[in-house]
Write a structure and sequence with these properties.
This protein is mainly alpha-helical. The protein is 79% helix and 2% strand. A hairpin with a 2-residue loop joins strand 1 and strand 2. Helix 2 runs parallel beside helix 9.
């Protein structure tokens, strides 16, 4: 039950963020958006270090592997995996969808792109809880929960930033909420699939943890930070990054 709750926490972050479409008249305030994007960036950076890379290094050492090799290979694969996804999926920039010109509506393309990017985050949560369940990966259940909470914090602004532009472009509030929520539904699915394969992936955990870290850092560098630093209110994004990083660092050290 603890694992089930932990895996579902990020999804509720997206759901609550998507609910904002019912409470905001037009679109999310630019100042609030900058701060939320910054917080999401800081949370994911800290989670990548304390919840993923450091456990990957420690686990590799316990397995008798040169500690930096799994961290390096996994991190690089995570980066290149997201690069590949960006090459084959629509790219979201300033609430516009560019890229593939397939038989999809703009709304469907938007949800499709965000959904693809959420898969590695779901895997990260699944890998963390798989490590906690195995009890030999150097990851505690509290640390896995810290990662899950951190991703939920990141998912809140993501849900709002998805649903609000859809409403602005003419989509009904209910439909915008549903699309925003569905974009996050893939995370618990990916996490549960990862958990089902726990026995198979334990030997690969150092690589998978690092892979998840690389994927999360890519999202931060490619999407969150550029958006938070655009325009005259960039300082708000910087403040958000600082607080997000500190929040996640304290969560992980205190609970993990």
């Amino acid at each position: 039950m603890k694992t089930f709750i932990g895996v579902m926490i990020p999804f509720f972050g997206t759901l609550i963020g998507s609910l904002m479409v019912f409470f905001m008249k037009d679109k999310i305030n630019k100042r609030i958006e900058k701060v939320l994007l910054g917080i999401a960036s800081g949370v994911m950076i800290a989670a990548s270090i304390w919840s993923l890379l450091i456990p990957a290094v420690n686990l590799a050492e316990s397995q008798g592997i040169i500690s930096w090799i799994p961290a390096t290979l996994g991190f690089m694969l995570g980066i290149f995996f997201l690069l590949m996804i960006d090459r084959i999926s629509p790219h979201i920039e300033k609430n516009k969808v560019k890229g593939i010109k397939a038989n999809f509506s703009k709304v469907q393309m938007l949800v499709f792109a965000v959904t693809l990017h959420n898969i590695p985050e779901g895997m990260a949560v699944g890998v963390a809880f798989a490590g906690a369940i195995s009890q030999n990966a150097g990851i505690t259940m509290a640390s896995a929960f810290a990662l899950s909470i951190g991703i939920a914090i990141q998912n809140f602004p993501e849900g709002a930033i998805i649903s609000m532009p859809l409403k602005t472009e003419g989509t009904s509030k209910l439909r915008a909420f549903v699309y925003g929520t569905l974009s996050g539904a893939v995370e618990p699915i990916a996490a549960f699939i990862t958990l089902l394969l726990t026995n198979m992936i334990v030997p690969l955990l150092p690589y998978l943890l690092s892979f998840a870290a690389g994927a999360m850092i890519y999202v931060v560098i490619n999407e969150l930070v550029p958006e938070s630093q655009e325009g005259e209110l960039a300082f708000l994004g910087t403040i958000g990054v600082t607080f997000g990083f500190l929040i996640m660092m304290i969560l992980d050290i205190a609970l993990g």
